[in-house]
Design a protein that fits this description.
Two copies of one chain form a homodimer. Chain A has 14 helices and 17 strands. By secondary structure, the first copy, chain A, is α/β, with parallel strands linked by helices. In chain A, a hairpin with a 4-residue loop joins strand 2 and strand 3.
């Protein structure tokens, strides 16, 4: 297997070769534009198409981007050699230096170094975590799992009320032992604390994992690794609204902005556990509806039209009912039926009856 | 010591007494208005003044709030009896029920139950964490500290790259052992990951703790408990901008909205470690300035005028320089001088030279 450092060196050597041959140094990379993003029906994920662009050093339109790409490649190579990790923001500050004898900075805005890093992911075929560039840190996990990380042996079932804090980069974690039948991933830390206090993971032999709001790349990659290496199904628990369903959509199918790295992040087997329109009817939660705002309606229309949802009857039925309700509902609405209703009744029933959508 | 449950029962008994004596049931509580919030120069914290309000059951203007307060008291008592915790959102859904034979809900908006809970904190003299009502969960911690929580013994130095995930409620944590000389609290998780990867807490025998953005009540309370129970100084590391200094201000002096609970949350001994205007000059970081927007200037003017900063020459000097710069700077700008500059040079020097502001 080629290491990240080797792929960076290969890129560098190729450029040196071009120079020695008297050629205009060039970098090849897939076109990163919506027109080149494809929904692959076989793998059920968003991936890059086959359109290739060439970036030349001696080309006024390309020179700056060319230099930025080489700069972040050099930064990444240093990080890999030193065994250190940097955030996107760190890389920006490291790249933001003035070219000697000019007044030009290599980058002026973080968006430039971010784009260069995304290009580098494509060119080197490594997710940026493998290039030692980290995303945000967020989220907690608990369950009967023992991992090894940075020389420590960590038991996710023995971490009190807090749980293990998920790092931004999970590439080097080793799974030592896992007693779990499935994973429940939820968008809300408060719901995680509810399930954790009720020892849901202990009673039902599973893993509970949460973010707070966004699903970070660290979380996506950890879920993917557990799905693949531990062979566990992943159930996604969100609010009943377009945003919740989009959280599921990104996990399962990938996102447009990260389509170039889908295979490293997509949790293709994950299932949508709820909240569904049917749950709302079954458990009489209509009185806890929150009326749709205009942006909710817009988002619902967008999501309904996605290629991967268009022919999915089960999801289209949910979308239709949501549109009729003109309302959304939160997971915490379950608390109206008792503080532990979610962990004692709602989730066990849903999972026992395989009452999920995919 | 009176437990939280006992103080709730005392409130209930007082109301039953009123009823049995044929009196109009009343609840006494300090006035929660800006006019009754005082900056106490002796304790250096924001606290409630002495103005007391009475809330009557038979009073059209008071009846609903009276009922809401009693309702959240009942919910809290149930939680305490069941040994369970709820989030603010959970309590809202539990209180949002229709009064029999009417069309009136006890609460319609979360702001109503939130206010009732704040009142209950005042009346019962218990922070809501002690009433088993939790704030948000956020943040990570690492260091040579062993705690006991929920029957687990947790070693903060053996948790790999992730660290311990700080729970929303830290009331029941027991400190078993601590080898640390101080605590560094920082606003950014990415900076925490930098220090953690560099084993800063190991090399300098300290504790590193972070949030992501806001400083939650769980974090404030944990810092306060470590300051008091472990006798450790707390250093606050933020960006050089009005928002960073406000993070320090809330930790040290309390906040206006939570003035009623300041003594339970304030980390009164904490010191502002940086980034300062002097650091920017010393380390030549001006080129990484980010220009002030209008809201930055406004916020700076507000903060400069706070009672607790007004006569503080060191902070006024910082405010003056920030105003002259018309610019802010991020902690990560240090990365321009090398990825580990912050952990190898900047922080060790600052702490060795006692180069903080308070």
């Amino acid at each position: 297997m080629t290491t990240a450092k080797q792929s960076l060196e290969k890129i560098g050597k190729k450029l040196v070769d071009d120079i020695e041959k008297g050629k205009n140094p060039e970098i090849e990379l897939p076109v990163r534009a919506l027109s080149n993003i494809i929904y692959d029906k076989k793998t059920c994920t968003l991936t890059m198409g086959k359109n290739i662009a060439k970036r030349y050093f001696f080309n006024v339109a390309h020179a700056k981007k060319f230099m930025q790409t080489v700069e972040v490649a050099a930064i990444s190579k240093n990080l890999l050699e030193e065994g250190k990790h940097a955030s996107l923001r760190d890389v920006f500050y490291m790249a933001k230096r003035t070219i000697p004898n000019t007044k030009v900075n290599i980058v002026d805005e973080q968006s430039e170094s971010d784009k260069a890093i995304e290009d580098l992911e494509l060119i080197s075929e490594n997710a940026r975590e493998m290039l030692n560039i980290n995303a945000n840190k967020m989220g907690s996990v608990a369950g009967k799992v023992i991992i090894e990380d940075q020389g420590d042996r960590i038991d996710w079932s023995k971490l009190g009320s807090g749980g293990w804090s998920i790092p931004s980069n999970v590439e080097n974690i080793k799974f030592i032992k896992a007693n779990a039948k499935y994973i429940v991933y939820m968008e809300k830390a408060a719901v995680w604390e509810r399930l954790h206090e009720d020892k849901f993971w202990d009673k039902h032999e599973c893993i509970i994992m949460s973010s707070q709001g966004q699903t970070t790349r660290g979380i996506r990659r950890l879920l993917q690794r557990m799905q693949e290496e531990l062979g566990l199904p992943v159930y996604v628990l969100t609010d009943f609204d377009p945003w919740g369903i989009y959280i599921y959509s990104v996990l399962k199918y990938g996102s447009i902005s990260l389509a170039h790295i889908t295979e490293k992040l997509a949790v293709s087997g994950c299932k949508f556990l709820g909240i569904t329109a049917d749950d709302i009817l079954k458990y009489d939660l209509k009185k806890h509806f929150i009326k749709f705002e205009e942006n909710d309606s817009k988002r619902l229309a967008q999501i309904s039209g996605y290629d991967w949802f268009k022919d999915n009857k089960d999801f289209q039925r949910q979308f239709r009912m949501m549109k009729e309700f003109k309302a959304k509902a939160e997971i915490q609405a379950m608390s109206a039926r008792g503080i532990s209703f979610i962990s004692e009744k709602y989730l066990p029933d849903k999972i026992k009856n395989k009452d999920w959508i995919e």
